[in-house]
Design a protein that fits this description.
Shape: globular
CATH superfamily of the largest domain: Aminoglycoside phosphotransferase (APH), C-terminal lobe
Largest sheet: 5 strands, antiparallel
Structural class: alpha+beta
CATH class of the largest domain: Alpha Beta
Helix content: 25-40%
Distance between the termini: 42 Å
Order of helices and strands: HEEEHEEEHHHEEEEHHHH
Number of domains: 2
Number of helices: 9
Number of strands: 10
Length: 297
């Protein structure tokens, strides 16, 4: 039985489609073995091509700008970063009945960060080094940040958070979630220099090789804004001493910490009602993050 669609207007893809797309535009790759990559990602289907490449096909219209964003910015950011990031090799065009632009990347080895890291304290240091390096990159000519995008003021998300908490009903402790959210809203807004933020540092977007962080992927939420946005892993990846280490390494003050917690809560409560019946991996991740956020109050 095929997996249920996550989005009402989601586009189906399969190995045969990928081969047709490759044959039409990149025939030198068309004879490679093609294997679907299993993940709980929400907006792209990934296919491994041979040993060294991956094809990335958007499932949904809102994801179609990500490849262009990564093509523009990752070559500029990568030389400054201590962990590997995706390397785009080619951009394909709509064809063979598939309506979106698609892309081919170098294959990045590793597993996602769900239970695959042996030393979370070291991972906190490694990820904080990545975030710190990203923050230091010059933001000149950065694209304007859309309203409600990662790195913006939490107030722009207030309606979405309240609606999601209401939709979840008794599936969560809505009162506790709302109190936590309001504490984050009440924190002082960021009044410093805006910096690069990845914006989506969830376990599924971190790769691990030999039990240690090796790469960061999925820069679709990349923006310039409040650095607190990239504190999300404190509740999505870390706990206890490793959470404290992550905060210490990034020198997060109390207001930034509250805003970061707000970003983690936002991601969790918005994802839960949307993917409740269609993406069990995302539900596990978001549910765990919400538990961690509410326990931290």
């Amino acid at each position: 039985m095929p997996a249920p669609k996550m989005h009402a207007d989601e586009i189906d893809t399969d190995v045969a489609l990928v081969r047709r797309l490759l044959a039409g535009e990149f025939p030198h790759w068309a004879d490679l073995a093609i294997e679907p990559v299993v993940s709980y990602g929400t907006d792209h289907d990934i296919y491994r091509l041979g040993d060294d490449l991956a094809a990335r096909l958007p499932r949904i219209g809102w994801a179609t700008e990500q490849a262009a964003k990564e093509e523009k910015w990752l070559p500029r950011l990568a030389p400054h970063l201590p962990l590997a990031v995706p390397v785009q090799l080619a951009m394909g065009h709509p064809a063979a009945g598939y309506p979106f632009a698609w892309s081919v990347y170098e294959w990045l080895p590793g597993e996602n960060a769900n239970g695959t890291i042996d030393d979370l304290d070291q991972a906190a240091v490694d990820l904080a080094a990545f975030v710190s390096a990203l923050r230091r990159v010059d933001t000149t000519d950065a694209d304007p940040r859309p309203r409600g995008a990662r790195g913006g003021p939490l107030a722009e998300l207030d309606g979405a958070v309240r609606r999601s908490i209401e939709q979840l009903g008794d599936r969560i402790d809505g009162g506790a979630a709302l109190r936590s959210w309001e504490e984050s809203l009440d924190a002082s807004e960021w009044d410093g220099e805006e910096v690069w933020v990845h914006g989506d540092l969830l376990p599924g977007n971190l790769l691990v090789v030999d039990s240690r962080l090796s790469a960061v992927i999925d820069f679709g939420c990349l923006n310039v804004g409040d650095p607190a946005c990239d504190l999300q892993p404190a509740w999505n990846v870390f706990a206890g001493d490793s959470r404290t280490r992550y905060r210490t390494e990034l020198q997060a003050d109390d207001a930034s910490w509250l805003r970061g917690r707000g970003w983690a809560l936002f991601q969790a409560v918005v994802a839960l009602p949307y993917y409740w019946d269609t993406n069990p991996g995302m539900i596990r991740q978001a549910s765990n993050a919400l538990v961690q956020v509410l326990a931290a109050r």
